[in-house]
Amino acid sequence: MALGVKAVAFSYVTHVLGIAGAVLVLVWCVHFRGGLAWEASNKSLIFNIHPVLMLIGLIIIGGEAIISYKTLSLRKEVKKLIHLVLHAVALILGIIGIYTAFKYHNESNIVNLYSLHSWLGIGIIILYGIQWIYGFLIFFYPGGTTTIRSESLPWHVVFGLFVYLLAVGNAALGYLEKLTFLENSGLAKYGSEAFLVNFTAIVTVLFGTFVVLTVISQGPAENDYSYSAI
Amino acid sequence: MALGVKAVAFSYVTHVLGIAGAVLVLVWCVHFRGGLAWEASNKSLIFNIHPVLMLIGLIIIGGEAIISYKTLSLRKEVKKLIHLVLHAVALILGIIGIYTAFKYHNESNIVNLYSLHSWLGIGIIILYGIQWIYGFLIFFYPGGTTTIRSESLPWHVVFGLFVYLLAVGNAALGYLEKLTFLENSGLAKYGSEAFLVNFTAIVTVLFGTFVVLTVISQGPAENDYSYSAI
């Protein structure tokens, strides 16, 4: 049973929060943290690519990929292609974003994979990849039998939302971890940068919330243009 | 549409994960961190009450409160009372748990309410309280009209799960924050305590996942002994 609200109404809020989140993370990494660079003697500029790609790629484009299938009034085949391509973009940007975290660590002699954020992050990107490959094979090409597709769909939605919510939660862990490091190095706990990072985290959590609200609300019509798996 | 799996099957996994989480947090706070105390010259012992009460109270008892309504084969009135009382216990333990964090900060001259964990925590406990009061007034005593009750129910479930997932995510933030502080003070990043805390966090996230899976699965019978709001 879906919530008695139009999904498209929630989707507008999702878009606005997504734009706000993208602006906030760029203001943080470019204005406060000195910008982005693939190669630099100031290794922090390499790290700065990480939050930008993870938020704009995995979280925002990934969220738009999820709600595109629910809110667009297009033919099923077209929506499926948009859903698949947006998720592929999200996944690729996510993988590059994770690579930059390792690159920063390795070039700065910081050890890898000790924190909860890193552990969950590796798990999430693997699950996201498995989910994408399963979706491609069963729902796109070559495609499973009708039985497999109809029995898989609720699990595809539930597992997809599970992985997505883990990603949103892990983004919050990332903001907190980085800000705690900065505060331990002297950044003001009540300063403007600390508030900016915390508000970016809250906007990220709200974006994830509205993605889920969009999914559990009513699609454009009670036909196969939409899904209502839960 | 619910998942085609019996909720009670998921609920067994939830119980086991809950017991595992409770044991892990006690091993951490008692064995590794020196135990719990309401008054102590070693202020860390006051802090140690915080993770124990938040996990066992708000997260585990709160999670059991959520799934009790879905899985028990009892009369609706009995289940409602169990649901209400367990949530009240979770809420009270959560409030005491938050109080101990402030008490530790104040007695150790640490500033309050600068971190994302603390901001979200205050928001979550307020929303949890509002949700409990609304549930009490509309579904228990004096009770709303039939229309209000039936229109509220999907929102009660969705908002309740939203607040609960925020609480689970915020627990993960808490583990990461505390462990980062300890590691900055010299705790080994790959030591047994660091691994214990990260595994406790993962068990907590899995517990929350199985609470949600229980809720979106099939109750004991397709009658009013269960709800299927989403």
TrEMBL record, chains A, B:
<feature type="domain" description="Cytochrome b561">
    <location>
        <begin position="13"/>
        <end position="216"/>
    </location>
</feature>
<keyword id="KW-0408">Iron</keyword>
<keyword id="KW-0349">Heme</keyword>
<feature type="transmembrane region" description="Helical">
    <location>
        <begin position="81"/>
        <end position="99"/>
    </location>
</feature>
<feature type="transmembrane region" description="Helical">
    <location>
        <begin position="195"/>
        <end position="216"/>
    </location>
</feature>
<keyword id="KW-0472">Membrane</keyword>
<feature type="transmembrane region" description="Helical">
    <location>
        <begin position="45"/>
        <end position="69"/>
    </location>
</feature>
<keyword id="KW-1133">Transmembrane helix</keyword>
<dbReference type="InterPro" id="IPR006593">
    <property type="entry name" value="Cyt_b561/ferric_Rdtase_TM"/>
</dbReference>
<dbReference type="InterPro" id="IPR043205">
    <property type="entry name" value="CYB561/CYBRD1-like"/>
</dbReference>
<keyword id="KW-0249">Electron transport</keyword>
<feature type="transmembrane region" description="Helical">
    <location>
        <begin position="153"/>
        <end position="175"/>
    </location>
</feature>
<feature type="transmembrane region" description="Helical">
    <location>
        <begin position="12"/>
        <end position="33"/>
    </location>
</feature>
<protein>
    <recommendedName>
        <fullName>ascorbate ferrireductase (transmembrane)</fullName>
        <ecNumber>7.2.1.3</ecNumber>
    </recommendedName>
</protein>
<dbReference type="GO" id="GO:0016020">
    <property type="term" value="C:membrane"/>
</dbReference>
<dbReference type="GO" id="GO:0140571">
    <property type="term" value="F:transmembrane ascorbate ferrireductase activity"/>
</dbReference>
<keyword id="KW-0813">Transport</keyword>
<dbReference type="Pfam" id="PF03188">
    <property type="entry name" value="Cytochrom_B561"/>
</dbReference>
<keyword id="KW-0812">Transmembrane</keyword>
<feature type="transmembrane region" description="Helical">
    <location>
        <begin position="119"/>
        <end position="141"/>
    </location>
</feature>
<keyword id="KW-0479">Metal-binding</keyword>
<dbReference type="GO" id="GO:0046872">
    <property type="term" value="F:metal ion binding"/>
</dbReference>
